[in-house]
Every structure is written in structure tokens, then in C-alpha cells.
Write a structure and sequence with these properties.
The protein is 37% helix and 36% strand. With 118 residues, the chain is of the alpha+beta class. It has one domain. It has a four-stranded antiparallel beta sheet. A hairpin with a 2-residue loop joins strand 3 and strand 4. The longest helix is centred in the N-terminal third of the chain and has 38 residues. The radius of gyration is 22 Å and the shape is elongated. About 7% of the residues have low confidence.
Length: 118
């Protein structure tokens, strides 16, 4: 009988870990998607990939998990860049990825002389 209780406790811990991992991956997906939308780049593969896991101490002093995720994005649909984010719980700690939108080509249909006269 004691082994059944220990097995149930181990199962509960495994389920809690799996559930928190899925929640962190969903949160990372939302953060990556929003960052790509804000930077006006294409979010590739529509997913994030867990690349790291370590034990850390949270702000409240308790131990928790720090998870690292990788995602990919493209400026023009041809190139491919990697982004990375670190989540401690559901809090974003580090983000490396697309920055603000950039102008890729000067528009030729706008005459700069007209803009100077105004």
C-alpha cells in the first residue's frame, strides 16, 4: 500500500511539471508571435522550441524553473534568423530577437524635393 501512495505522489509531481512546461511553452509562443508582429517580420514555423531548463531562485525566494526557448523569424521570407527567450515561471527574463521594424528599401515614388518645400 505505501508504494501505491508514493507512485501516486510521483505521478502528481510529473503531471504538475508537464503542465507547467506546457504553460511556459504557450507563453513563449505568445511572446514570440507578438514580438515578430511588432517588428513587422514573419514568425517562422509558428512554434517555439525548448532548448534549456535549469533550477533557479525566484524573486520570492522559492525554487523554480528557468526555461529557455528558441524561435525563428524572417525579414523577407528568404532569410532565417534565430531568436531566444528565457522565462522564469511566466516572467520574461531575457529576449533576443527581432528589433523594431526597419525600412528595407527606399520608396522611389516619393520625390524628396517636394518634402523639402513643405
Amino acid at each position: 500500500m505505501p508504494s501505491l501512495i508514493l507512485l501516486m505522489i510521483a505521478g502528481a509531481f510529473a503531471y504538475a511539471f508537464w503542465n507547467s512546461s506546457r504553460a511556459a511553452a504557450e507563453r513563449a509562443g505568445v511572446l514570440g508571435r507578438n514580438a515578430c508582429r511588432a517588428a513587422d517580420v514573419q514568425w517562422l514555423d509558428q512554434s517555439v522550441h525548448a532548448t534549456g531548463l535549469r533550477v533557479c531562485r525566484k524573486d520570492n525566494g522559492w525554487l523554480g524553473w528557468e526555461r529557455t526557448f528558441k524561435f525563428e523569424y524572417s525579414h523577407d521570407g528568404v532569410d532565417r534568423h534565430s531568436g531566444r527567450m528565457v522565462l522564469r515561471g511566466d516572467q520574461l527574463i531575457t529576449f533576443v530577437g527581432p528589433s523594431a521594424a526597419r525600412i528595407s528599401e527606399i520608396r522611389r515614388d516619393i520625390d524628396t524635393r517636394d518634402a523639402e518645400d513643405v
